[in-house]
Amino acid sequence: MFVTGMVDDQKADRAAFDRQLDINVKGVAAAVRAAAPLMGNGGRIVSIGTTGAVHIPFAGAADYVATKAAVAAYTRGWARDLGPRNITVNVIQPGAINTEMNPQDGPFAEALNQLAALGRYGQPEDIAAAVAFFAGPDAGYITGATLNVDGGQAA
């Protein structure tokens, strides 16, 4: 969920803020808490964050990016918690990806393209490839890691 608003906006929708926390943080935590006890040794957990967690591209995004930074922090903690079971926990932080929520021909496209070193949006397949890597055998010794898939937006 993506809700924006300036920190000094006294008319901000507090219910939307709470819903964003519920979905972006508590939802991920609930899923991992439910899955972890059921996972066998050597399992994989891959969460999706945003590069906004390390580089906020515009004003009014603090609440949203804070929820995604929480996912990155949880990832590092869960990597420690689950490491003894050889379960890896990593997070992928996309930049501008062509999705329904943020289409490459949408209202933010021009500004976001300028932020990326590659000057363009990524595609869902770019994120899928990163997830497949973290879920596969070649990433067996990678845990607690954050991978930006952002065309150089955070560079």
UniProtKB/TrEMBL annotation:
Entry's Pfam families? adh_short_C2
Which family is annotated?
Belongs to the short-chain dehydrogenases/reductases (SDR) family.
This chain's protein is named NAD(P)-dependent dehydrogenase (Short-subunit alcohol dehydrogenase family)
Q: Which organism is it from?
A: Xanthobacter agilis
